[in-house]
Specification:
- By secondary structure, the protein is an alpha/beta fold.
- It is 41% helix and 13% strand.
- The chain has helices at 9-28, 51-58, 65-70, 76-100, 150-159, 178-190, 206-220, 244-247, 258-270, 304-316, 333-336, 341-357, and strands spanning 104-110, 113-119, 131-135, 163-166, 199-204, 228-232, 293-298, 321-326.
- It is globular and about 55 Å long.
Length: 360
């Protein structure tokens, strides 16, 4: 079994130091051999997108990289305040979305882990025996509690299936492997009453990364694996690796830049783990035997390379994996602009994938 961690004063200082070291390391990147210096460019609004998505792009000012970097908290106390503030706004948004889509969200507990049962107004008979286990995104720091249920609501409403959203523990107080331990606890409980092949597991961003890390852990524990995975623009690597994390800086309207909070959040999550450990950077794990996987990203996504690298690792391991890349979309835009045709198309594609691979 994994060892438990306690967030001590020494650990707090270590995490703050990790943030500083990460920033220094990113600054040193410019002196690396083979680095191309690319000057200012013009980026028009995307073509071949829906009117709704284009309007959303036209109404978004160009991301301010320096402002995003300067907004990053410097202390653990500041991080906690930001997490709380964002959580309140996200929870209000999730409640409004659930009400608008006639979805019922109920808080429960499974083996000591907080979860939310998300029930649509209507269950598709083809999903009657299925359950989607959802892991929310938020850089492993944000969207705790009800705030993490927004995309779970969309999946429940669009696929017309029952969703269980896992409110896994997060830093600063609970770094890795706390989140994985929570997913394992819920998974083992569900296996007592349901076949794994009737269960889907997945989420967006950190939720996609945690999905992969959890499957690595399931394999170690010899647990039955899900029937299908949803890897929404997955956070597959704690390190600043991959072309898109450089190319999409100042283009991705949500993440803006990797060192505008993403790197620090990942460092706090990784804590004592080596950054190449599969629990925190699941791209470095063994993908042999992974379940069929649906992967999605966009052409403006700072983490497009994460999706591409993940897809190639899955295919190299012989896994049935689909990669969907949408024009003009930044990180998670399919959930951020839920009224767009692209959002409806994505969740319809995901639903078709689930119906294809989940056991009825």
């Amino acid at each position: 079994m994994m060892k438990a961690f306690r967030f001590t004063k020494a650990r707090t200082l270590a995490l703050v130091a990790a943030v500083v070291l990460t920033t220094v390391a990113l600054a040193a990147t410019a002196t690396q051999e083979g680095v191309w210096e690319i000057g200012p460019r013009m980026l028009p609004a995307s073509v071949d997108v829906s009117d709704v998505m284009r309007e959303s792009l036209l109404n978004t000012p160009a991301p301010d990289v320096e402002a995003a970097r300067n907004f990053v908290p410097e202390t653990i106390e500041q991080w906690k305040a930001l997490i709380s503030e964002r959580g309140e706004r996200a929870a209000a948004g999730a409640r409004a979305l659930a009400n608008g889509l006639s979805v019922v969200v109920e808080q429960e507990s499974i083996d000591g882990v907080n979860v939310h049962r998300v029930t649509p107004a209507e269950i598709d008979p083809r999903h009657e025996n299925h359950l989607f286990v959802y892991l929310h995104g938020g850089a492993y720091l944000f969207n705790g509690g009800e705030a993490g249920t927004a995309e779970a609501v969309l999946i429940a409403a669009r696929a017309k299936m029952l969703v269980l959203s896992v409110d896994y523990r997060m830093p600063p107080d609970h770094p890795a492997p706390a989140a994985i331990n929570d997913v394992v606890a819920v998974w083992e409980n569900l296996l007592n009453s349901r076949p794994a092949t009737s269960l889907a597991l997945g989420g967006t961003s950190a939720g996609g990364g945690l999905t992969m890390a959890s499957v690595h852990r399931f394999k170690e524990l010899d647990l039955d694996l899900p029937g299908a995975l949803y890897l929404g623009t997955p956070g597959s690597d704690v390190n600043k690796v991959g072309d898109s994390r450089y190319i999409m800086e100042g283009i991705d309207r949500l993440l803006v830049a990797w060192d505008a909070g993403g790197a620090q959040g990942m460092s706090m999550y990784a804590a004592d783990y080596d950054h190449n450990h599969p629990y925190v950077s699941p791209i470095y794990g063994d993908f042999e035997g992974f379940p069929p996987s649906y992967v999605i990203s966009g052409t403006r996504d700072l983490m497009l390379s994460d999706a591409v690298r993940t897809h190639r690792k899955l295919r190299a391991a012989g896994v049935d994996a689909d990669l969907h890349v949408y024009e003009g979309q930044s990180h998670g835009d399919y959930a951020a602009v839920p009224n767009s045709p692209e959002s409806h198309e994505h969740y319809a594609e995901l639903n078709a994938f689930l119906l294809k691979h989940l056991e009825r």
